[in-house]
Write a structure and sequence with these properties.
Layout (H helix, E strand, L loop, with lengths): L2 E5 L4 H16 L3 E6 L4 H6 L3 E4 L10 H8 L5 H10 L3 H12 L4 E3 L6 H9 L3 E5 L28 H12 L7 H9 L9 H4 L6 E3 L16 E3 L15 H8 L5 E4 L11 H12 L3 E4 L9 H5 L3 E4 L4 H4 L5 E4 L3 H10 L3 E3 L6 H10 L3 E3 L7 H13 L1 H10 L8 H13 L1
Amino acid sequence: MSKILLTTFGSYGDLHPYLAIARVLKGRGDDVTLATHEDYREYVERIGVRFVPIKPGLDELGPQESWAAKANHSLHGTQFIVRTLILPYLDEGYKTIKEIAVGHDLMISHVLTFATPIVAEELGIPWMSCALQPSPFFSAYDPPALGFMTLLPRLKHLGPTIAGGVLKLLARPTRSWLKPIDELRTRVGLPASPKNVLIDGFSSFGTLALFPSSFAPAQPDWPDRVKQIGFPLFDEETTSDISAELQQFLDAGSPPVIFTLGTAIVKMETNYFEIAYEAVKRLGLRAVFLVGKNPRRVPSAAMTDPNIHVSNYEPFSKLFPRGAVIVHQCGIGTTGQALASGRPQILVPFAHDQPDNARRLVELGVGISIPARRLNVARLTKALKSVTQKEGYAQRAKNLVADLQISGFDRRLQDAISECLG
């Protein structure tokens, strides 16, 4: 038995992969602790894992409606998250993580839990980094499509030297954001580090890439000791079963189009569901709207339309396979679940990794992408017509399931952990 500490920050898309990892490690007999926002205590303790809160709690950041748009801005979103939502709490997080880390055999971090690698280095504890999606590798051989520059993948055709130079220029300004991390290292007696932890903050002990090679193959400039173990596919926020009301709706007619914005974008003010309703109404399609805690954003006519079912949340793993098409924002958790369902997709990326995830799905031939800023009724209607009427999308989505490495996740994770611990 090993003592393993996991740390993560962010939305449910950042929580669920660590819950999946924690459940596997607990199942093999490890003593597991997961440290994250206080708001997630219930979900961690439900799977029988020790929970430790790290600041900030999401409630400390103010009403999510007030900062969600800033956090998901295509140009400034990452800077806002790092400098405004995370780094002001760095010292408090460091103290908490150091206190609980003593005696652990391994630490597994999230890119935003900046204190974890510092504590691991200070205490001499092995740690592993995680890449929830391909874009953090910032590969010159496979440039990511970023929220502020979605055309970067075209640099691939110019070769890694030119692409790498452009990526370095783009990354250079972000290094100044990380001054509080440099100052913390100095205060605790660690040597200065030239690393930009947003770009090359990967551990020499190993990195868990939580996506399969069929979604993004390994590249020559990835860091050493990367283990691609596949999508975690954990989605049990409240229950593992779809609601009775939704089950009744699904049984009453043809497979619906499923619209979701994940758990972060859905908190923004957006006309996404208004556009969705007009598009499916034009085409005479049934639909499921997953709206989180914001049903007010759904047109009143949709609330009483027998062809529309509105729900705050349903487990993707149970619902998506029952749909005709999945329309989503391309967060990596939703992307993994949509791919595993074998259903064609329409992709509406907003920011961060979402444009890169979307372009990969387009390249795989399983969906059509409409950037959020360009979404309107005409474009969505046209895309829905294409993916529902052209069999190629559905067939490719179905065929791809066999290549997703869905089975074997537990074994690959355990092998990676065992190799790291020696």
